[in-house]
Design goal:
This protein is of the alpha+beta class. The protein has one domain (2-133). The protein has helices spanning 57-60, 63-77, 93-98, 100-117, 129-133, and strands at residues 2-13, 16-26, 31-38, 42-48, 51-54, 80-84, 87-91, 122-126. Strand 1 and strand 2 (16-26) form a beta hairpin. It starts with a strand and ends with a helix. The relative contact order is 0.19.
Length: 135
């Protein structure tokens, strides 16, 4: 069973977005697992054709993915500084460059885990690896 989210608000934090939505349940559709770092959320985004979904047990209850997603969230969130550099919210690009190998390793582990548990109900789209490799 799936539930999708219709978007309510999008906050732009230095070109990084936090998306908040409301749930609507449906059944038997293909999911897209998007790997994209977002402030406060982590890298794993479960999506369907209507948008962001929640309550996809295959992903949401996998302890290894939960742990890895939390590690990526903490690392990515550490790039944000508040009331710093004469800005309310500042993204530390130098720290992102410095820690890119750690982030790339976490993404590799996430992709490997997703590959192991994939039962044919989802595909993975990685928006981060290529961007990070260019830093």
């Amino acid at each position: 069973m799936k539930s999708s989210m219709k978007l309510k608000r999008i906050y732009n934090y230095e070109k990084h977005y936090l998306i908040i939505g409301t749930m609507k349940k449906e059944k038997n559709e293909m999911y897209i697992i998007k790997l994209m770092n977002e402030f406060i959320h982590g890298i794993l985004w479960v999506c369907d054709e209507e948008g962001i979904s929640t309550n996809y047990d295959l992903i949401d209850k996998d302890l290894e993915l939960i742990k890895l997603n939390e590690e990526t969230r903490k690392l990515f969130d550490s790039y944000y500084e508040f009331d710093s550099h004469n800005q309310n919210c500042w993204f530390n690009e130098e720290l992102e460059k410095k820690t890119k190998d750690k982030m790339l390793e976490l993404i590799r582990k996430i992709k490997n885990r997703l590959s192991k548990i994939n039962d044919g109900t989802f595909i993975v789209v990685d928006y981060e690896t290529e961007k990070l490799e260019k830093l």
